[in-house]
Amino acid sequence: MTMKFAVALAAALAVGSLAAGTSAQAQQSMSVLGGTSAATKCADQAAIATRGGRVSSRSIDVCNDAIKHEALNSSELAATYVNRSVLHLTLGHVAAAIADDDSALRLQGNLADAFVNRGAAHAAAQRFADAVGDFDHALALKPRHSEWVYYNRGLAREDLGDLKGAYLDYLQASQLDPAWSLPKTELARFTVAKAAQG
Known about the structure:
By secondary structure, this protein is mainly alpha-helical. The protein is 60% helix and 0% strand. It has helices at 37-50, 57-69, 74-90, 94-107, 112-124, 128-140, 146-159, 163-176, 181-187. The termini are far apart.
């Protein structure tokens, strides 16, 4: 599965942020949130996945162990669902990724990372309107790396035929992170013309 969409990467162990590797088409940047022991190992596996590292169903088993056997508080459990969604999406298990993000959102309805990752999963399933809706929710929550969300929403809007919206999102992503080349690459494909005055 070629993943065109970036999924925002918030880093392991609750607070920090971690930049992701670059694929041919998009930065793989998935939300990764952490907790304790098996939950931390789950976060580590999700971070590996976002950097383009190899993951397998054994990686998911680590997250399963955390969810089933650890006494996680609701924030840690939500974070572990988000991390497992990263692994599912990386392995092409789109429905499972969406289910995990839904579970995270039931626990924490304002978890921007879950909206970002679910938006990427919807985009992978070519449900671009659903993806845009999730990216809108994420942006309303002011995520740490909103440039990634704008970039993703631009891709989804372009797939929906909303070229002006896509252009504006790529422009916003580029302005938020001037050193990031992917939005600039997308912007270079556009020609902006003044509207005819009538």
